[in-house]
Design brief:
Layout lengths: L3 H25 L2 H11 L13 H19 L11 H7 L4
Helix pairs in contact: 1-3
Length: 95
């Protein structure tokens, strides 16, 4: 069985890092450009403005999403009970 804490930390790292990148984009002013591009590419027309960077909000966002990532990854330790070719490399890497 995979180590439950390691799998949880992988989930936390994935979601936490994603939101660190988002916070950097907001702080640099590039978030609005990226958001507008994504909506344009999906042929969606919404008038939404990305607000100014708030360090406290960024810390809360990163902390909460990392916690959710850990909570989601923690039960993932059971993936190695049902191995498939797609999961072999991931599930057995933590033995």
């Amino acid at each position: 069985m995979a180590n439950k804490n390691i799998v949880g930390l992988v989930g936390a790292a994935l979601l936490g890092t994603w939101h660190v990148v988002w916070s950097i984009l907001v702080a640099s002013g590039l978030a609005q450009v990226l958001y507008d591009f994504i909506l344009w590419a999906h042929m969606v027309h919404l008038k939404i403005a990305i607000g100014p960077f708030d360090p406290l909000a960024a810390v809360v966002l990163i902390g909460m999403t990392a916690s959710v990532g850990y909570a989601m990854g923690y039960p993932g330790r059971h993936l190695d009970r049902y191995p498939t070719r797609a999961l072999d490399a991931f599930a057995y890497a933590f033995h």
